[in-house]
Amino acid sequence: MKFTKMHGAGNDYVYVDCFHNPYPADPAALARLVSDRHFGIGGDGLILICPTEKADARMRMFNADGSESEMCGNGLRCVAKYVYDHAIATKSPLKIETGRGILSVEVEAVAGRVRKATIAMGQPILTASEIPTTLPGNPPIEADLVVDGVTYQVTCVSVGNPHCVIFVDRITDELVLGVGPKIENHPAFPKRVNVEFVKVNSRTDANMRVWERGSGETLACGTGACAVAVAGILTGRFDRTVTVHLLGGDLELHWDEVGGEVFLTGPTVEVFSGDWPETG
């Protein structure tokens, strides 16, 4: 099986071109194998680039633990890069089918290769039952969430997948690696949740680390950055446009006041390609 390793701001996945390769018999099991950073290729998960009659391509995303996720902003930008660079569809914008629906991706190419892309992520989901969470509010804004006897003020939104945003004075390993997985699996989130810890630098600038549902800490999370922008605006911390600094790089977010869509801009990088043995 031929694969390509790509990343968006350090959020790295193994990509399989199902236009030219057979569809994996068990993508969840394959995701667990290839994601292993010691015995596999290494990555935050597996993304399949598939044919579809509805758009230029379809993206299916599997986390490192094999669970399927609805959306990944960094992954979607890389799917668009692959589709453009490998001449599946050489146009802009591209239409990519995802678990969030069909999304539009504007690509910026240099010498025929996409270096940067902007996704129209659609309107954030703010109804608690659709995020989903049992916390009060539509959406829950700085709601109390108790973890190991400590109360955190959390703001919850969905950008095709669920997010729990916590604004803090200092982002620490104790929070991300210790509290993050406990919130991911908290009973308040029936489908688990991605957890973002955010330090605000100004009304247009912030730092963020993320504990991703099914993958653990990753260097970046595109939907998470979108959720942070929305949460920051809802709580009065941010203007409509904000730059979010992640461990793997910077992402630019804009929540349009008129149409209500969130726009995500960031880099795309192809790292290498290879062959994965069919025996695993």
Stretches with pLDDT under 50, minimum 5 residues: none
Q: Helix share of residues? A: 10-25%
Strand segment tally: 18
CATH superfamily of the largest domain: Diaminopimelate Epimerase, Chain A, domain 1
End-to-end distance, in Å? 10 Å
CATH topology of the largest domain, by name, is Diaminopimelate Epimerase, Chain A, domain 1
Largest sheet properties: 18 strands, mixed
Compressed to H and E, one letter per element, the order equals EEHEEEHEEEEEEHEEEHEEEE
Total helical elements: 4
Category from helices, strands and their pairing: alpha+beta
Basic shape: globular
Rg: 18 Å
Per CATH, the class of the largest domain reads Alpha Beta
**Count of distinct structural domains:** 2
State which percent range the strand residues make up.
35-45%
CATH architecture of the largest domain, please?
Roll
General description of the model:
This protein is about 15% helix and about 40% strand. The chain is globular and about 50 Å long. The model has no long low-confidence stretch (mean pLDDT about 95). It has helices at about 25-35, 75-85, 175-185, 220-235, and strands spanning about 1-10, 10-15, 45-50, 55-65, 70, 95-100, 100-110, 115-120, 145, 150-160, 160-165, 195-200, 205-210, 215-220, 240-245, 250-255, 260-265, 270-275. It has an 18-stranded mixed beta sheet that branches. The protein is α+β, with helices and mostly antiparallel strands and about 280 residues long. The chain has 2 domains: about 1-120 and about 265-275, Roll (Diaminopimelate Epimerase, Chain A, domain 1), CATH 3.10.310.10; about 130-260, Diaminopimelate Epimerase, Chain A, domain 1, CATH 3.10.310.
